[in-house]
């Protein structure tokens, strides 16, 4: 191959590659989910908060990228990446009680589990700090003979038992029980947070309320919900209260 012909081929290849990259960039669409203006740095000036997402081309109800963009009043820009998911939202709440509102954002992961991922960020004095959110309540769980189930909350030591005879035929059909006895030891499905939201606690301060689903052999086989409330004290989350609710309540 002559030198001139080779160079022309290389130039054509690079041009084609550039066109493909440009075309891909053109099809990447960023959508704004929510926008709000508020002082979240403490300088008494308005900052702009944008919640954005990038959907899949063939699945517009799911976002492959989700992130917060903050344009502070002093000209500084911040990008806070979140996990991908089906839906996202944010609230402005002074969760750490420092006099400046924080960013509390949530992402619904989608699917039958109904799991929500939550994030808490502070931008006081234009310093981005990733604050923790409380871990889900630790729960030991298992089925019992006689079409029953039991859970134990590790933090409180309390045990709760559930009668499941209304699911007798369903469990027998799946081979979980035989003549009322378990075929083998089986744990329940204890999910992470189904929801986690800011609430006002009894002392008037802000806290968080989480809800976890406890299911039998599938997420649709809901047995109970565990509600937990949390107070933020000295930079750490303290469990305030736990309530267990049966599905039909």
TrEMBL record:
Keywords (A to Z) from UniProt: Signal
Range of residues in the leader sequence: 1-23
Q: What is this protein called?
A: VCBS repeat-containing protein
């Amino acid at each position: 191959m002559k030198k001139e012909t080779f160079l022309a081929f290389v130039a054509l290849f690079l041009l084609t590659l550039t066109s493909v990259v440009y075309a891909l960039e053109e099809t990447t669409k960023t959508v704004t989910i929510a926008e709000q203006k508020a002082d979240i740095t403490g300088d008494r000036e308005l900052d702009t908060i944008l919640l954005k997402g990038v959907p899949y081309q063939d699945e517009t109800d799911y976002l492959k990228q989700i992130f917060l963009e903050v344009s502070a009043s002093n000209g500084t820009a911040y990008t806070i990446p979140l996990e991908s998911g089906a839906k996202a939202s944010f609230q402005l709440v002074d969760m750490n009680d420092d006099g400046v509102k924080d960013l509390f954002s949530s992402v619904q992961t989608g699917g039958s589990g109904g799991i929500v991922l939550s994030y808490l960020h502070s931008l006081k004095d234009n310093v981005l700090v990733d604050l923790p959110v409380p871990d889900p309540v630790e729960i030991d769980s298992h089925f019992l003979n006689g079409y029953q189930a039991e859970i134990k909350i590790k933090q409180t030591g309390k045990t709760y038992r559930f009668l499941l005879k209304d699911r007798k035929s369903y469990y027998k059909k799946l081979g979980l029980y035989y003549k009322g006895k378990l075929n083998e030891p089986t744990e329940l499905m204890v999910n992470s947070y189904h929801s986690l939201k800011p609430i006002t606690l009894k002392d008037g301060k802000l806290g968080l309320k989480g809800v976890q689903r406890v299911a039998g052999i599938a997420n649709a086989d809901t047995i109970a919900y565990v509600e937990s409330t949390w107070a933020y004290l000295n930079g750490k989350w303290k469990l305030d209260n736990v309530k267990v609710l049966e599905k039909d309540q």
